[in-house]
# Entry
Amino acid sequence: MSAVILVEVDLTSPEGQAHTLRFADRAVRPFGPNDSLRPNTAWDDRLIEPPSLRRDLFEDLASLSPGIGLGVMTLANADGGLDAYRGHSWGGVRVWRWEAGSDFATAVPVFAGEATAPTMGVSSSAPSRARIALYDARIELDRAANPETYAGTNGEAGVLYEGAADGLKGRAKPLALGDLRDAHLPAPQVNAGARVYQLHDGLAAGSEQIFDRGGAAGYADQGDLAGGAFDAALPAAASYVTDLSRGLLKLNGDPVGTVTFGLKGDAEGGYVETAGLVLARLLARAGVAAERIGESIAGLAHDAVVGIWANDGVRTSDAAAAIARSVPAALLPDRLGVWQAILFGPPAAAETFAIEADQVVALAGDEAAPLPVAEARVGWGRIYTTFSRGDLAPVLRDTATEAALAEEHRWATASDAELKARRPSTWRKLEVTTALRQEAAAQALADQLLVLFGLRPDGQPRQQYRVTLQLDADVLAVPLGATVRLVYPPRGIDERFVLIGEELFRPGRDRVVWTLWG
# Structure
């Protein structure tokens, strides 16, 4: 039996009708009526070649920047059979590798993501083709962290906290996750007449702070009220009340300068402040279904305190990246489209998979490997409002607080003086910003990154290889982030590496190119 590539694409017609197209890279019989998953299902052999699919832990390993898994699929359209779908919305796509003649249940998942509308090639001298770009599920994070926006309808039918039509209308409501007590949040004023600010869209844990010109404002807390009681409340002078169920704060006072806030954020289902739990909460708020948030995310082994505030213009992908870098971890969908978190570190002591010399189709050193790191800087304790000297309360000028409030991040640094001396022109500085809130955790991460991206224990720089292998079920079962042992005596290689990238069906339909680092 030989392997067949099967593809399903979900489409929606201009009239809103949903249906699925199915393609194969060779002619196959329809599945029989007794197939448990795809009874009486036919596949159109329009797939000219298997789709190219590239997935990486990070788009840029040198900065731990996340990316999006990409691919391209080309379909035959000489008969014009796809022309009818020009106006359709192309959505979810799923790819399998299947042994012809077996049940569909035996098909091995390869990729799940999103397809774009096809580019239809038209030619009088060559058969027409349709080209479709594919993206893994990371594309769904390229949107606002909080899809809820202000309606701008204050004063209409009793609406109080949706802002004015010429003010907040259309802006995203703020999302506060984790510990942000000293983050100087520029919370939007959702009702100017009542002096009400919104710190978080939803139930917040509290511990709210109010700052005026960078320092504690000194307003008295008159308690937490709910619903109508909050709406009707008039705090005493220089006081405030909250409605934590809606993330609202009502202030009675006249700040001298810029007023900013702090709090412990989202508490729907319980307050959380560690990276894994905050990531899971962020994905859920962005609209990712619960069954697609893998247990590895909430179970991420990392207990440092983080905090992230997403106001208007902040995308889920950027917020998630800052949290993941705090570990450090990669956040990406698996082959089924389920989100997973993968701790990133040096190769483990035991490998998940071993590559022997006779399995290597091709081997090349990867020129994309970054230089060793001799200095690591970790940005932590982000503030969301910065202050110039003139913006600050006079008592804060010429103090350490003045310097701290002038920049978004504080910095923890780790340096390897010996490496700088030994390799004066062949080292680099690594600088990452995170969602960490505590200096000790940031310093620990800086130390960790210096070891991870500096020289190996044997004194050599980290190596990166591109290895071409025969594609089979065992190879497909190895996830990104796994430790792989490469044994290749012709080049004196017998070491363990981390699988950081894969290119499926390249350079041929039964091949894969792995990127190994370590």
Notes: The radius of gyration is 27 Å. The domain at 353-369+463-517 is CATH 2.30.300.10 (Phage tail proteins - horseshoe like beta roll fold). The first strand starts at residue 3 and ends at 12.
